Amino acid sequence: MNSRTLWNDNWYFAKTALDVEWEDRALWEREMQPADLPHDWLIYDTKNLYEDSIGWYRKKFVYSASGVKHAGEAAQENLREQSNSVAGNACTTCDERVILRFEGVYMDSSIYINGVCLGDWKYGYSTFDWDITDHLREGENEVVLRVTFQAPNSRWYSGAGIYRDVWMIRLPETHIPLDGIYTSSVETENGYDLIIDTELEWGAITENYELEYCLHYAGDSKNSAETENREIFRVKQPLAGGQEKTSVAIPVDNPRKWDITDPYLYDLTVRLCKLPMNDGENGAGEALQKTEITQEEHLRIGFRTMQFEPDRGFLLNGRKVRLNGACDHHDLGALGAAFHKEAMRRKFELMRSMGVNAVRTSHNMPAVELMELADEMGFLIVSEAFDMWEMAKNPYDYARFFKEWMEKDVRSWIRRDRNHPSVIMWSIGNEIPDTHADAHGQEITRSLLAVVRKWDYRKVAPVTIGSNYMPWENAQKCADIVKVAGYNYAEKYYAEHHEKHPDWIIYGSETSSVVQSRGVYHFPLERANLIEADEQCSALGNSTTSWAAKNTEYCITMDRDTPYSCGQFIWTAIDYIGEPTPYQTKNSYFGQMDTAGFPKDSYYVFRSEWTDGKKDPMIHVYPYWDFNPGQQVDVRITSNAPEVELFVNGVSQGKQQIDHQKGTVLQPSWKVPYAPGSICAVAYDETGREIARQERHSFGNTDHYVLKANKSALHADGEDMIFVEISAEDRDGYPVENASDYVRVTVEGAGRLIGLDNGDSTDYDAYKGTVRKLFQGKLLAMIAAKTIPGEIRVTVEDAWTATVSMTDETGAGTATAVVETPDNTAAAGHRTATVTLQAVEAPIRPGVCATEENREYPPAFVDPGFVPVRKLEMSAPYMRLTPEKPYVLLHTRIYPMEATDRKLLWSITDASGIPSPVAKLEELEDGESIRITGVSDGSFQVRCMTCNGTTNIKMISQLDFAVEGMGQTFHSPYEPVTGISYVGSFGGDVSRGVENSAGTDKAQPTGLVYEALDFGEFGSDEITLSIFANDNDPHRIQIWKGEPEESGSGTQGTLVGEITYQKPGIWEVFQPDTFVLPRRLKGVTKLTIVSEDKIFLKEFHFTRQEKAYARLSALTDGVTYGDSFVRTGDAVEQIGNNVSLEFTDMNFGEAGTDSIVICGRTPLQQNTIQLRFTDGATQVLPFPHSEEYRELRFPLERVTGEQNVTFVFLPGCNFDFKWFRFEKSGYEE
Length: 1229
Hints:
Layout: E1 3-6, E2 11-16, H1 25-29, E3 33-35, E4 53-64, E5 67-70, H2 73-81, E6 96-102, E7 105-106, E8 109-113, E9 116-121, E10 128-131, E11 139-149, E12 161-162, E13 166-172, E14 181-187, E15 191-199, E16 209-217, E17 231-238, E18 245-253, E19 266-274, E20 292-301, E21 306-309, E22 313-316, E23 319-320, E24 323-327, H3 341-354, E25 358-360, H4 368-377, E26 380-384, H5 402-417, E27 423-430, H6 434-437, H7 440-455, E28 463-467, H8 473-482, E29 484-488, H9 494-500, E30 505-512, H10 552-560, E31 565-571, H11 601-610, E32 619-622, E33 632-639, E34 643-648, E35 651-657, E36 669-673, E37 678-684, E38 690-697, E39 704-709, E40 713-715, E41 721-729, E42 742-749, E43 751-757, E44 771-773, E45 778-785, E46 790-798, E47 803-807, E48 814-818, E49 832-840, E50 871-875, E51 880-881, E52 887-895, E53 905-909, E54 919-923, E55 929-934, E56 938-946, E57 955-963, E58 977-978, E59 984-987, E60 991-992, E61 998-999, E62 1006-1014, E63 1020-1028, E64 1035-1041, E65 1054-1061, E66 1071-1081, E67 1084-1091, E68 1096-1102, E69 1112-1113, ...
Parallel strand pairs: 24-25, 24-31, 25-26, 26-27, 27-28, 28-29, 29-30, 30-31, 40-49, 51-57
Antiparallel strand pairs: 1-13, 2-3, 2-4, 4-5, 4-11, 6-10, 6-13, 7-12, 8-9, 8-11, 14-15, 15-18, 16-17, 16-19, 19-20, 21-22, 22-23, 32-33, 33-36, 34-35, 34-37, 37-38, 39-41, 41-45, 42-44, 42-46, 43-45, 46-49, 47-48, 50-52, 52-55, 53-56, 54-55, 56-57, 58-68, 59-62, 60-61, 61-68, 62-67, 63-66, ...
Helix pairs in contact: 3-4, 5-7, 7-8
């Protein structure tokens, strides 16, 4: 009989440098330590999550025909002496096949059995098998897996190691191969025909076998006891000798359908049976007296009907279902890439509570258990395979192996997961540059499609691609091959492509990408705010990337109002490690929940639109309520009710309606001056009846901790988990929603602490430590089961009140510190909270390993004993500066009083965080106060900041001020003008990019307007722009004085110049380029920059020019008078008798000039120009014949000091004059 045994226990692990080889066994073997599988060796050091390294995994076991067991310790010691030998008796009598299955190893692995290398497996996400039968020997054996990690190999955190389950599978010689059963169903008049295709591999005996198929109800809480496990059919199918594949169609009358609202499953058992034989028929002279089951395989299947229609979208069991989907990367926060089924179950539960019904496994094959959970819980899955094909995105990614390995990986992927009812699409790629580059991308698309169809030949799911290249022809040709077109951030093309390709199935394979940090708010709401000094993204909804949706509401309504769209997959439901756009921190900001699974405010926006307000009414008001007195706060409400009302300290701020069917404003907003107390949001139904409310209170410092577990008991099976939410409350019991206390977490008894996570991308304290700080009032503890029942005691206490032995993150040594919280007296008390949970007795799967626990690590950036700042509270007697009150004193109070880092940083900025000239500040001696003086009219923010013990700003407190009656504010164009500081825009959409850049629209011209630029009397014609363009193409840009007519300003500006910017694109690198404009800008003016397509403008500035040495236009920079001349577009031409061109205020300084360059032309053999100066000196410049404009340099006798300069043309001249430039003495070209 076959067997399948979990093989996660008794592994040893060592990490080495990349240059260590198999032959260096002594080196890596001496580093071996026990390791729990699944295992991610990179997650332990949060400051080095992408360390180039090799992981060595070793397991020793005893093999015999009767079974497999782990080698004893003594045997292992004996084997260690023979570690480089393959001595031993080979197993020559095996009548079975022994296979090791690895469900996921990241990446580039090689396997050694008893010292013999069997081969490699390159991809880090596909399941692979090694038949080790021919290399086994009776007695002790050894398997070693060598895993190579080189960065960069992904755009996200991949983890490294054997991060999914390992199995030992023993099959008879004649057997059904792994993943060799393929089921599909066809709906009939009375139910379904279940089609079962079974592959066979034969041994020496190829006769007297049959297959038996049994279908049972799987049974669940909705099923009665009578129907649970009731057999639906039992069908036998004789096999012809040597038959490689067989197929059978079995009718099933009116089965209960699998659906997202009722994910009902059936158990299918397939048995390979050896039939009785007469004497002598078996070749051994003995009769087989009864049927022998030699192999038994179990599958869970579901019956469902799925359709994709170009005009209706996705249909499940005959009804339209909109895919309210989310993309999901494979890490599990503090657990890294190491897969834990219960952590994935929690992920699904969190997504379900938000209204998600579909998941895209971005951008790789998922874990087996993810698919099982999706089947069980009713999620629809877009199963994705690749993020790259032949064209690499990173130096060490899978593109290195794609050509050779693609078919093996697709085979593994499709065969393993094709029986899951949750699969609705096979995605063969995400944002694949090959599809855009040339026609070869279409060849690869066809190849991938063919390989998918080879293994999913009954088409249980269609093939798709998720593409960000859909505006262009080549990607559209690839989409036309698969017909199911996934659009990444390209919703604007839906209508055009739906009309152009009426046979396409359209959906949003990746949308949203609005970024936010949980509980962090950068005001005001109306100002786009992507980058801030605290390296956090505003959760108000005003922080969006350049390629993303304008906001969450747009993301929701755009899909809602497209009836033919199947739906969308937002990026992402939950934050993931890596890809921390727009910063260089630890984890992403894209999720609607952080890496700990704590909801951000945007979570409630999706929940309000993706859940039914009649069945489950909800309301959410934000932000929390603890700011500076008088600060203007944007308060927003989201609800699935049709009407909401806001109360501030009991006073109604008014009601607002929400149109969930057709409206575009899904979050009513108010501006409210902060005052301590509370805000309360109330939801009403269509009749005006209250159906939900939420109130949030002001709060003080932490008084005590609160522990909330997601369940009270777990199974003592080594695999179950409990998730404990740790939060802080003040003395009145109100949540301290910006608490940042360091706490110690201790788990005693029948549980293990295996992860701590607060979701903060800027926090590098260890996931695997026992001390972490709360972030915005929350911390998550992940508690795993041991294999013994009993009590689990979880204790949370102030971190710095005990003697602590800490191991550094490399494990190289320990440090002991005795520290006490300031004022830690008996009266103050030691804040401690405990929750007692239960581990109940449960079956334990053989092969489970449950020994790992978190250990002590020092904080990443602060010393033990550090008390973080929670709040910087600014206050001032008034916030409007006038000539009567030109200055004000502002004071900041630090909470808590015991905070360690008391150094404050100050700045005066505009609403975007750009330094503002409107006011100036002076720090006072107490270190906590400043004097603010108004300079010119305008509004500004005072920012008070702290680094909280690190080298980077960690907290920003802001307070709004205004200056009135002190005159207009002018800006110098000779200093960098930040792209995002524009005062108006027109045409396309403008986004805020990294480094305070302004991103223009790629689909239409976009204008950015900058006002009150003071160029001075002389001005400048030389502009430098610092631009990032994600391509190598030329980009046409116009520079306007004023605004063009299409801006809608009602005035017509002047086009100063048209320039072309073109440089090799380097991702998010701004490259400056300088241009000379045909016209000079002078005085105080408004400037408009218009880009025809997508660029990011970080800043621009003009060159401050010395008039005497600038390039001066003959047409515009002087005064022309005389008898005969003509002004043309850029020159003074046909200069004849007695014409003078005069230029004043030319200061040549002490060094002076000794040459001049003139751009002109003359039809004469020679045209003589007299050059006269204020001091009476005259110099003659003979300009020779030229049909075209040319630049000529003439030597001069040195001229110094202040001068007026006149070009004199006497009778007989005929000259065309464009410009001239004096050169400083000693100039050499």
